[in-house]
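4.2 Preliminary Data

To establish feasibility before requesting continued support, the project team ran the inverse folding procedure on a target of 34 residues. The structure was first converted into the token representation described in Section 3, and no sequence information of any kind was made available to the design step. The complete token record follows.
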């Protein structure tokens, strides 16, 4: 797991979300577990 820092905040990127409203297909069919 990679950690990224920005000024005073350190966070980890665990999910990659790609959203393309151009094609208007049902992207999220099921709920996203956090």
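Position-by-position output of the design step:
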């Amino acid at each position: 797991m990679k950690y990224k820092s920005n000024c005073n905040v350190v966070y980890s990127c665990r999910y990659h979300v790609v959203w393309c409203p151009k094609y208007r297909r049902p992207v999220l069919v099921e709920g996203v577990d956090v």
